[in-house]
Amino acid sequence: MKQTALRRAATVSAVAAAFVLALAGPAAAHVTVNPGTATQGGYTKVSFRVPNESDSESTTKLEINLPVESPVGSVSVKPVPGWTAVAEKSKLATPVKVHDSEITEAVTKITWTAAGGSEIKPGTFQEFDVSLGPLPAVDQMVFKALQTYSGGTVVRWIDEPATDGTEPENPAPVLKLAAASATAAPSAAAPAPAAEAAGDKSDSGNGSAWGIAGLVAGLAGLVLGLLAYRKAATPSA
Hints:
There is one protein chain. Helix content is 27%, strand content 35%. It contains 2 helices and 12 strands; from the N terminus they run αββββββββββββα.
């Protein structure tokens, strides 16, 4: 009886510990776009966050592909010290109107290349800022990204979001777009630093909430285990 209770307590504690680690552990380090939401028809500044996943190689190049089917009329790149940015335009199959002007070509790819000594080293990350607008009237924009390492390896972050909500193996950065509200202020009026700070705060808040939930679950498991042990150890009357 005592051994059974002890085994049960150990199982509960192990499951709780695994739950804590699953929630508190860091997510897969892939290329992301931050903030992850914006408003259709507005302007926004986004940051493509690139972590270095290799223990021995550095990231030397990043290629971001903008969706051709939902082009953006204005694309501006913020300089990154030690990196060269090249924005490439492509002819559009169907011209689109932007502020009553018809455009026949748009930026469809941006490539950043590091100079010697400016690469993204192991254990570090870099952010690449881009101003976009007006944003198209679609639910989301998928930016397929290619990350090149110093050894020649190219990691293709190109998988589109799954319909069942699960994360693909190599997810592409996705910017969710919400329909503009008649009473909402235009997104162009919001300063870019404020939008960036809001995105970072949201990411941090979600991580803290999950971490607290995991710790609570772990403590509950340990308490249950101790109670089971004490019950087994107490002689019956």
